[in-house]
Design goal:
Structural class: alpha/beta
Distance between the termini: 45 Å
Number of domains: 1
Bound molecules: nicotinamide-adenine-dinucleotide
Radius of gyration: 17 Å
Order of helices and strands: EHEHEHEHEHEHHHE
């Protein structure tokens, strides 16, 4: 259901947001719902509260516990989408591990941290894409958004390497589903104005000072870019990475 303020550009669509129990994913889910989409919020835990919050706009929103690294869990998630809504139009591959990842470097990077970064950020993105595409093909329409990071070109941490892989994977995905009515794009956020994000990044203020637009980003800044890429009008835009970072330099973490 749309309000006067929200034009309802996603009326009748079904959107799935991973990593939606908190942070940016939680806000994306709320914004999609406010613009008319029914939303499935997937996360390891805690999705019910976020789904109830997103439902306040009148859209139908449900929370599903899912570990995106586990094939069985992702298959079960898509079964819920199919059973509850019968279609899937938008997948936001937002679930990600980033806290503590930039400091790890490479020389002394612990194995468990390295493996977790690849499992969630890359394999999780791939698994959700693989499981979502058949539902999108059924309607001949789909929008997949993968989430990278502003500094993905800097290969100095497991986090940034995985986000670089996500951008490359986006191009490959876009090529293989382009003639099925499905676009695949990537959004690379700058540092957003979450206290957790800022406190986890001691360099946040220095990075922001180097931006063209000298403020932290907001979830709304990021959603606006995502919403454009998910709109029917963006059907000829695919395989792209859109940096939404206030004009940060290419390697702000260096
Ligand atoms: N916050 C920022 O400034 C910023 C900047 C650049 C990129 N990003 C990217 O945006 C995305 C969201 O960032 P955030 O700050 O909201 O992160 P966050 O840590 O607050 O939230 C991430 C969510 O992903 C979920 N998640 C982690 N592993 C999962 C798994 N295996 N299965 C399902 N869900 C899982 C977590 O439970 C959490 O709810 C991430 O991909 C992150 O890398 C964030």
């Amino acid at each position: 259901m749309s309000t006067a303020e929200n034009v309802g550009i996603f009326d009748g669509r079904v959107a799935l947001v991973t990593g939606a129990a908190r942070g940016l994913g939680r806000d994306y889910a709320r914004y999609f719902a406010a613009e008319g989409a029914n939303v499935v919020l997937a996360d390891m835990k805690g999705t019910e509260v976020a789904a109830t919050e997103a439902s306040a706009s009148g859209s139908r929103c449900i929370g599903v516990e899912c570990d995106v690294t586990k094939p069985k869990s992702v298959r079960a998630l898509m079964e819920v989408v199919a059973t509850e809504f019968g279609r899937l139009d938008v997948l936001i591959n937002n679930a990600g591990l980033w806290r503590g990842m930039n400091e790890a470097g490479l020389l002394h990077c612990p194995d468990d941290l390295w493996e977790a970064a690849w499992a969630v950020n890359v394999t999780g993105t791939l698994r959700c894409y693989q499981a979502a595409v058949p539902l999108m093909v059924a309607n001949g329409y789909g929008r997949v958004i993968n989430i990278s990071s502003m500094a993905s070109c800097n290969g100095g941490s497991p986090y940034l390497l995985t986000k670089n892989a996500v951008e490359h994977m986006t191009m490959g995905m876009a090529r293989e589903v382009g003639d099925m009515g499905i676009t695949v794009n990537c959004v690379a956020p700058g540092i957003s104005a979450f206290e957790a994000a800022v406190s986890a990044l001691p360099d946040a203020n220095r990075i922001v000072a180097g931006n063209s637009v000298k403020r932290l980003g907001t979830s709304r800044d990021l959603y606006n870019a995502i919403a454009y890429l998910c709109s029917p009008g963006a059907e000829w835009v695919t395989g792209q990475t859109l940096r939404v970072d206030g004009g940060a330099g290419p390697s702000p973490f260096m």
